[in-house]
Fold this sequence. Notes:
Radius of gyration of chain B: 23 Å
Structural class of chain A: alpha+beta
Strand content of chain A: 15-25%
Number of strands of chain A: 22
Oligomer: heterodimer
Strand order of the largest sheet of chain B: 6-5-15-16-17-14-18
Distance between the termini of chain B: 53 Å
Shape of chain B: globular
Radius of gyration of chain A: 24 Å
Largest interface: A-B, 54 and 58 residues
Strand content of chain B: 15-25%
Structural class of chain B: alpha+beta
Number of helices of chain A: 15
Number of strands of chain B: 22
Amino acid sequence: MAKSLLIAELLPNNLVVMGSRLDESAIQKIVIVGGGTAGWMAAAALACKLTPYRHAIRLVESEEIGIVGVGEATVPHIRFFNSTLGIDEVDFMAKTRATFKLGIEFVNWARIGDAYIHPFGAFGRFIGDVGFLHHWIRLHRMGQASSFFDYSYPVVAAKLGRFTRPSDDPRSVLNTFSYAFQFDATLYAPYLRKYAEKRGVVRTEGKVVDVRLRDEDGFVEAVILASGERVEADLFIDCSGFRGLIIEQALKTGYEDWTHWLPCDRAVAVPCQATEPSVAYTRATARDAGWQWRIPLQHRVGNGYVYCSRFVSDDTARETLLHNLEGPALAEPRLLRFVTGKRKKAWNKNCVAIGLAGGFLEPLESTSIHLAQAAITKLVELFPDRRFDPADVDEFNRVIDLEYERVRDFIVLHYHATERNDTPLWDYCRTMAIPDTLAYKMELFRERGHVVKYKEGLFLEPSWHAVYIGQRIIPRRYDPLTDGIAVPEAARALQETREIVRHAAEATPTHSAFIDRYCPAAMSAA
Amino acid sequence: MSEPIRTIVIVGGGCTAWLAAATLAQVLSPLRIQVNVVEHEDDTVSDLATLPSLPLLHRAVGIAEPEFMRAAGATFKLGTEFVDWTGPASSYFHAHGQTGVALEGISFHLHWLRRGAGAAPLDEFALAAVAAKLGRFTFPAADQRSVLSTFDYGYHVDAPRYADFLRAYAGRLGATRLQGEFAEVLRNGETGAVEALLLKGGARIEGDLFIDCTAQGLLIAPHSGFEDWSQWFACDRTVDVRCEHQGPPFPFESATAKPAGWQWRIPLQGQMGNGYVYASRYISDDEATNALLASLGGKVIGEPRLHRFRPGRRTETWKGNVIALGAAAGTLEPLESTGLHLAQSALLRLTTLFPHKPCGPAEATEFNRLTTSEWDRARDFVLLHYAVAGRKDTSFWTANATMVLPPLLRRKIDMFRNRGHVILYDDETFETSSWASVYIGQGVLPRRIDPLLENVDPEQNARNLQRMRSMIRQAADSMPSHAAMLQKTGAMARRPI
């Protein structure tokens, strides 16, 4: 071939050549109500991806209204979100004092004394076209396999307090995992604010006190600020938190309450001093009436007790949290109240609810930011014009509904798959009726070790394996094709994997050393 | 008490049954499961076009491509040309593989829609389409960085010969062909599970798992409902005949819309396969046969064969210890080469949900859920061609224009008309590129520009597209001719068919 035929040569550096040039039927003005992580993520993403609209975006927030941010862990999708915005990882981690996250350690969930890590990564590898889980089940029954979790590099590395970035080499065991971040969420919002304002987003300081609807169709016409200012727009993005100022208070969309499946309704949170070098995993310890999180950041540790107010008083919960800190508290504990569930429609008329305004699922699997980012990404993909075609709205809601439901099912699994009977909460969770979709999935796994796969679904097969096996649900039967591999051969493969994982983990630098070298937080920066 | 499956009995003839035998014999060989086939007369059409999934399955089962192609008189397939679907002389190509290249994470077709006036048709951005029309072929490049990796291919095969080849291959893998004709099913009185088949002459064939590949669904039909699709698909007959073909074989199929259905031309080695898929409520068998014969591009070979089918699918394809594949599972007219693909997909699904004995409901329930979902999504893709056809010249076509569509398809079409967005649900066979090709090829253009591309200058965009088109043309020109590739790879049968 005389000339090369590389795809890379077809990708233009910059397709954007024009400034704003909006059609008459196009959205002219966008107002985001509420700052915080959700509001500024939305502002940043819209300003980046929809460049003709960046000067049409206004964000209204009030310094008065506290931002929820209680120290946040995330899932690997955030890296993709950040990179599509062109955000540099090192800069982001330094500014938000972030640490890396390889997974979550669940302590005391199926039984008191249990501990397992749900990693971002695979367990073992296929042997003869049959998935690792089945080989493990067979050998485990014969006493020829150790803990399922010994065969996961991110688990072993995390437990040893190590971290390094994944390898591109498909032959390396370091190619089988991913990572996310643990960071100070109160720093992510200002970080994104700088990003968004640089690209044309205008911030207005003010508190929304009223919402005006159009007579003819009930669409939102404007929001009224405490100052009296009337802020009009075509599209309203409600990031006002649990209140749902527009989506609920004005549009009365309705909320699907999931308390019967996830009874926790409060959280008390407090940062404390770290007493050891930071590790690359979050911890979720089950307690009498809920669970306690531990999120290690560069400069401190975030802690919180998520609990059910039916089973424990706020005072007792607060005491339990303070009693279970590794170091001195660095602030007064803050109390949050919430109702687990989701808005019946995240997009109603010309209002799209993102973040807590759209719904809430407790942070057991660090999904809050992801759910907001999923909604923002979908909004960009289905960005409307002033006609607000119902097809766009319906498709958005369909996908968001599925995201919420599937995350919900995964979280409910942690509670329901317990053997604990030592407190009323655990008795309830162990015996409650669960969503049909989860019951189906659990039955299929219990019977045969098969995990249902969907097109939209945050948690992939290894995640489900981790929680099922970690919480002592071992399938009754395994894939019959497993028996096509002779036992000694399979046992050898498992042993080899275990050794490779162990050696690789022991050769990995410590997490704190990695942070110091790669992205140390500037302690004086805000 | 769960025990391992030891014996599988397949009932049927033709490609589906023998593909099942070969695949299962290969995949299950480490378990020493015996695969037996009770051959049953096969009543399917003789020309078959496939999707790119078949080459993959062949590789997994160890079938060598040149050997298979020689035996089955096969040619390579780069896609399907749709002629006359929106009016006389209208034509577009549904290519295998990608159309264009996604730019900045946005689907290519959206960029194409943002082109300036006078830009080339979408077909010219699909490498498979460009190569096909030039009569060229090569294997896709392994290097993902190359434009030559952006296309894919399937096959055109002579179905009876392919079945013969598969029968022999399955036999070499250890599958056994049993003598005798199927007469009756013997079930366990308590559980309802099939214990054995009774053959004419009295032989009793026992098995743990039974695969029904008969055209009539002899094992599955008494125990599974049928979802009829005649409200959407009027076509219920085919008539097919071979003819001579002068000149090199085309590397693509053509599907031409007709007054009461559509006609296929499937190029095989040394001859052309022709078929008219038609609706018996609009034309008679004789009229259809005459129309087919009048359309042939060469001298007729043999007699036209008639075949009836019922558009639709079983409500459950795995019932007890019986699994239905191919025509036993249902029929979707072959407009988009889905027949063998759906059977192969079900086979692979079976291997990932392989049961124990007795077959509990867990595997079957999940299998059925996935299978019905897959069939319905494939159905919707084929139905799309009819739903958005521009023709109103005969009762057949006006009926198509006014039918009430399945809700999920209706939503898809509305979304595309609105803004060019392709919705994909779970278990889709066809990706964004394929849907876009059909919408755009049949004149469905979105009302508005997607906001993600509003900032793109049409002229700058057109220049980028022109470069892309050029590179694609160059890539196609660099390929040898289809005929030369058939020779070079040893795919040509030594003796003419």
